[in-house]
Amino acid sequence: MKIGLITLGCPKNVVDSEVLKGQLTGKDVAFVSNPEQADAIIINTCAFILPAREEAVDTILEAVELKKNGKLREIFVTGCLPQIYINELKDEIPEVDRFFSEKDFQWIGRQIAASLNIQPGGNGLYRFHETPAHYAYLKISDGCDNRCHYCTIPLIKGKYRSRPSQQILAEAHQLVNQGVKELIIVAQDTTYYGWDIGDRGALKKLIQELAKIDHIRWIRILYAHPAHFDNDLIEVFQTQPKLCRYIDLPIQHISDKILSAMGRKVTERETRALIQRLRSKIPDIAIRTTIMVGYPGENDNDFNLLKEFVTEIEFDRLGIFKFIAEHGTPAENLPDQIDEALKEDRLQELAELQLTISYNKNQQLVGKTLPVIVDQKDQKVDNYLGRSQFDSPLIDNTIHIKGDVYEGEIYDVIINRTDAYDLWGEALSRTKK
Ligand code: SF4
């Protein structure tokens, strides 16, 4: 039985797909990357914003075409899209054999295996690793209690549920046995980990336990909500060398008026104080943030505040998004929606600003030596591509490495030249443990 598993959306979906693959892996199954070769296709969808939903529906329809014309026998759809639109999808796309919603997740593998008449594979914890062998996303919770007014995630995923730390640690050990050296902690809100069960120190304890695992070299935190970032976590950065000097801290805006309208539970003063604390206590930390432009009611004054803040803070990494009025969210029907062209202008203005900031920061690295993990061979030239501890895979800077290196190993690399988002350097030696 040849199965094609298509994953759309964020790293949290990558983890779910890896678990699902683990549940199905068995002697009767081969996974194929070309859908045209598949006997069955599973599509793990994202529904966060309209373009993601459109992509999900297009992907399902492409599979339906294959089923009509080719050898494809069955189509299964899981993830966020059926979680909110299962009835509509069943009516509109009857060619899909089964839609699974969130509550089915634990059992999807078994149910698909039964439907395909194959033996189910692993025990539900085993992950079939989809990312390069040396790094893996580690999902520590699901759902979100924040209810930011523009966001569909709480509607799709429900309330925050921390995973038991023992389960996460067991999974981390298993990933290490598969060759993982870098763990990337993900959740809708990683700094809220444990708060739903009354344990506010849970993230600190978890990182300390993960760091004890022998072959783990780097631990990285994504999606750290500023409202839940406490001093204990700063202390872990100061004392735990395996924790990358990198934090993904989505602030979304800086105008108090907009932050409050977004329901972000944090003010300009608190955001400034946190960034100041991070930079003074962990001087080499790289701060990544995401910002949303064009929220309803964002006037020139709000946008100028944001621009001045980006200029002043000089974030090390910056993602910029335009507000999209999502169905079912409180922001959907707010007055003073912003014209699309103005949103685009604001996005471009910030992107240009960040281009200069990023270029200048990278220039300061010329002549310096950084530990760099080798992600893959560059298919175009005789180089390898990697990242420093200040960069997450796929979203941050890439380092082009010359030299005799192996994928998945960490080397000291001297940086020779840079532009705004790429750096070039030469490997000197493999770093010690
Ligand atoms: S923190 Fe806000 S933006 Fe992020 S998933 Fe939760 S509700 Fe959505």
Q: Hetero groups bound?
A: iron/sulfur cluster
CATH architecture of the largest domain: Alpha-Beta Horseshoe
Order of strands, main sheet, comes to 6-9-10-11-12-13
Strand content: 15-25%
Task: Please tell me about this protein's structure.
With 433 residues, the chain is of the alpha/beta class. The chain has three domains: 2-116, 3-Layer(aba) Sandwich (Rossmann fold), CATH 3.40.50.12160; 135-363, Alpha-Beta Horseshoe (pyruvate-formate lyase- activating enzyme); 369-430, OB fold (Dihydrolipoamide Acetyltransferase, E2P) (Beta Barrel), CATH 2.40.50.140. Helices cover 35% and strands 22% of the residues. The chain is built from twelve helices and 18 strands. The chain has helices spanning 11-24, 50-69, 80-92, 108-116, 153-157, 165-177, 202-211, 231-239, 256-262, 268-281, 300-313, 340-363, and strands spanning 2-7, 30-31, 40-45, 74-79, 98-99, 135-139, 141-142, 161-162, 182-186, 218-221, 243-248, 286-293, 317-322, 369-377, 384-388, 398-402, 410-418, 422-430. A six-stranded parallel β-sheet has the order 6-9-10-11-12-13. A hairpin with a 3-residue loop joins strand 17 and strand 18 (422-430). Helix 1 packs across helix 4 (108-116) and helix 11 packs parallel to helix 12. The longest helix has 24 residues, at 340-363. The mean pLDDT is 94. The chain binds iron/sulfur cluster. Residues 144, 146-148, 151, 153-154, 188-189, 225 line the site of iron/sulfur cluster.
Q: What's the quick description here?
A:
The chain has 433 residues and is α/β, with parallel strands linked by helices. Helices cover 35% and strands 22% of the residues.
